[in-house]
Amino acid sequence: MSTASPRSDIAIIGAGMAGLAAARRLRANGHTCRIFEKSRGVGGRLATRRAGDLRFDHGAQFFTARGNAFRKALAEWTAEGIVAPWFDDTHVGVPAIGAPVRAMANRFEVQLETQITSLQSVEGGWRLVDAQGRVHDAGHGAFSAVILALPAPQVLPLAETAGVPMPGLDDVRYAPCWTLMAAFEEPLPGPDRHASPEGALSWLARNSAKPGRDPSPETWVIHASPAWSRAHLELSPDEVTPLLWDLARTVLDTDATPGFLAAHRWRYARVEQTAPKPFLWNADARIGACGDWGLGPRVEAAFDSGDGLGMIVASSLSRASSAAE
């Protein structure tokens, strides 16, 4: 008689939307997950920069929903008060863009500031090794499966340490993005949003006008275009800040002096070339990968990739457990 448990300890590397969507789906199927995140907080590009009392959603700006799965999730989050409609068919987290991701993360064990650098195959599954040389397992044995919920360029070296191929990820391409954050004591005139796909600045938004935000001091988030960001990618934030503000001042048509200015560089901001598949799963090795790289540059794409992988992993582990009985 088999003593295999229907529950499995699964390691998820990356606490952004894709990783947490995978964890959410696996938890619904009776599996336990432990999540590792190299940053100080969860959310990935669903990020909010804090500077004293100031808040800037300086990564992803909003969500849209095209499919039923993400529509259902948005409806649940809206009912919980952590998502609200913004303009047209867009939504934002409340009181910050990453609110739904943080709500999902609260249901799991998340180990922050832990950068996993290699995977070790051991009897029963996998152990993880971090940048400080610490070894992580499930506490009572190996992790039965590992999910890499990371940008494609970060998936590849980790998968290589496990000897697991990730077909198609070499072809994924991202556009970088320099982001400028600006704050003002007095409101600026004009509309709350400026979108200019052809200009040096692709997006400018009055962050303080989003639902659930403090309207004062006034805060703005400004995204440079992919072309401008690539041309200035290796400059420092201090070098980029005045360049971006000179551009933004013209678009905003203002002579106001910001009380706060800071720039942030996103190397993997927007997927330009996707992978052939929405996610990857190696059933023999029990290692998978997910991210918006599988479907496109949208928050929903990350959710769908992680949710889809979670379903496949749950089904695969269930079949393996049944075969062992």
Structure, explained:
The structure is a single chain. The protein has a 6-stranded mixed sheet, sandwiched between helices. Strands 13-14-15-12-16 form a 5-stranded antiparallel sheet. Strands 8-9-10 form a 3-stranded antiparallel sheet. It has 7 helices and 18 strands. It is 28% helix and 29% strand. The protein folds into 2 domains: 9-46 and 98-171 and 276-324, FAD/NAD(P)-binding domain; 173-272, Polyamine Oxidase, Chain A, domain 2, CATH 3.90.660. It is globular and about 70 Å long. Mean pLDDT is 94; it is low at 1-6. It is an alpha+beta fold and 325 residues long. This is NAD(P)-binding protein. GO terms for molecular function: oxidoreductase activity. Pfam families: Amino_oxidase, NAD_binding_8.
Encode the helix/strand succession as letters.
EHEEEHEEHEEEEEHEEEEHHEEEH
Count the E strands: 18
Poorly predicted parts: 1-6
Q: DSSP helix count?
A: 7
Q: Look up the CATH topology of the largest domain.
A: FAD/NAD(P)-binding domain
| End-to-end CA span | 7 Å
Q: What is the CATH architecture term of the largest domain? A: 3-Layer(bba) Sandwich
Mean pLDDT: 94
GO molecular function: oxidoreductase activity
Organism: Pannonibacter tanglangensis
Domain Amine oxidase: 97-267
Pfam families: Amino_oxidase, NAD_binding_8
